[in-house]
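TL;DR need structure tokens for one chain.
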Amino acid sequence: MANKILVVDDERLIVKGIKYSLEQDGMSVDAAYDGEEALRLIKQNSYDMIILDVMLPKLDGLGVLQQTREFTSVPIIMVTAKGEDIDKIMGLEYGADDYITKPFNIIELKARIKAIMRRSAAKPDTREQKRKVLKSRELELDANARRVFISGKEINLTAKEFDLLQLLMENPDKVYSRENLLNTVWGFNYPGDARTVDVHMRRLREKIEQDPGDPQYIHTKWGVGYYFR
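>> reply
TL;DR here they are.
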């Protein structure tokens, strides 16, 4: 089945170009030209990826991102024309999985899409793979289904938040530097910096920790990095 992508941008020529290029790779592409239309489509359809511009009429991209994260963890790549750190970090704060700055090369965009999809595909053959579940006190992570629960209640994590948590839970007490996490989870060619890891860790703690200021699960080793206890 073809991957289904939603492209959200008010510049119709950009949408047309992205749509054409992705369809040449066998993907199914929907388009939206303002934030309200994007939200309507996201609620009505199941997408494998959303490419979301920051600057949109009616409802801006960060507003769309924030509302989307209330009901789905679909991977989202933010697109910004500004190239300002504040937009990038705010996008990650709200749960974006990646960002790209205009003008961009379509080859780079497709590489980002494919990299994120590879990490979040989670299509195991259950006939050959046993269910892999990691548990720690009230926290439970189902690696095959890519679902996380606290005391039996499902927690909605983004693809990157899930990848970070799984890596840490699979390697308890191992301290990972920010650079190590960036390279392992985002990939060696990712253009972001260590702040990306800090933002995601803060968001992850807010979701799984009863008191993010006094965490039970994800700890910081000052001056070094993060580890799971």
